[in-house]
Design goal:
75% helix, single chain, mainly alpha, two-stranded antiparallel ribbon, 324 residues
């Protein structure tokens, strides 16, 4: 049976060939690492990988909407740090209540999403330029707001109840919330008017415009959704790692985009898979934990992530050529 016939099998078509392959890769990676690394299958390693997957997952979900329009956002990592720093500074230095601080994190992400979306959709500034500028603005705003000081969020024993969003005891609450929000994102992208227009913008912007659709509104919405999810990602970052320093966050851009593209979202726009993004993120998180468990530095993960992006984009380009 050739590959084309396999893809035509009803169950394969329903689940998605790419998602099935990615799930197989994820399981194989876990089995291999469990065999070659002592105690890798234990709960501590699993929880560590999941902590990394949560915030990276929300970043990837957000940028999936942007890439679906044919755009890109390289500011998501620094904006996540900006959200965490501003909301954390409000909490620790100005006595803002915890719940309101968490809401501030999402509001800051929303503002950056509005800013990016407006410049891209209404001013027609290229997404690459907007995201580069926004990345520097986010770093600068966070540094000015916190007076270049790092911010440490409280531990669970000292009023940090928000950490229960990440885990309660040994139960990974975060994975439940992440999957729930991923399902909502999938419904929005695949079963609503907004999602259809967002995908259509990536497929054929001119045709959508000529049909009388307000393309600016829907393109901006994609960036706003991304900003909100980045604000949520900041909450999960500090929930897992506590301390945030100004001037960082760039390193998570490529990893989030890699998880998204690996999952089947086309960099050319018009094709996106929330389910694929979720699996791609879990692979990146497991890869990160595996590299550290093997005694290598994070630099190796950066190399591998870069190669993954190249391979995924090349595969997408070749698939489009075949379809054309």
């Amino acid at each position: 049976m050739n590959l084309k016939k396999i893809k035509e099998i009803p169950i394969v078509k329903k689940l998605g060939f790419n998602r099935i392959v990615l799930t197989g890769v994820l399981v194989l990676m876990y089995v291999v690492l469990s065999l070659i690394v002592d105690k890798f299958a234990g709960m501590p390693r699993i929880m560590s990988a999941l902590n990394y997957a949560y915030f990276l997952g929300f970043l990837s979900l957000g940028v999936t909407f942007v890439i679906a329009t044919g755009g890109i956002d390289f500011s998501i990592g620094p904006v996540m740090f900006c959200c965490a720093l501003i909301s954390g500074y409000c909490l620790t230095s100005h006595g803002v209540p915890m719940l309101l601080s968490l809401i501030i994190s999402v509001i800051v992400g929303f503002i950056f999403g509005m800013f990016n979306g407006y410049l891209v959709a209404y001013w027609r500034v290229p997404p690459f330029i907007v995201s580069m500028a926004s990345m520097n603005i986010a770093k600068g705003v966070a540094s000015v707001f916190t007076k270049t000081q790092s911010v440490s969020w409280p531990q669970a024993a000292k009023g940090g109840w928000f950490r229960s969003l990440v885990k309660v005891g040994k139960f990974p609450v975060g994975i439940v919330i992440f999957f729930a929000i991923a399902i909502v994102c999938s419904i929005v992208l695949n079963h609503t008017k907004a999602g259809r227009y967002i995908l259509s913008l990536g497929s054929n912007r001119e045709a959508v415009r000529l049909s009388g659709v307000d393309i600016k509104k829907w393109e901006m919405l994609a960036y706003v959704i991304c900003g909100i999810l980045v604000g949520i990602a900041a909450i999960y970052f500090v929930g897992a790692y506590t301390t945030v320093q100004p001037g960082y966050g760039d390193q998570y851009n490529n990893e989030a985009i890699a998880g998204c593209v690996m999952g089947g979202t086309s960099m050319a726009g018009g094709l996106a898979s929330i389910g694929g993004t979720v699996i791609g993120v879990l692979i990146i998180a497991l890869l990160q934990e595996g590299i550290l468990a093997l005694g290598f530095t994070k630099d190796y993960q950066l190399i591998i992530t870069g190669l993954i992006v190249i391979v995924a984009v090349y595969a997408d380009v070749m698939a489009r050529r075949r379809n054309n």
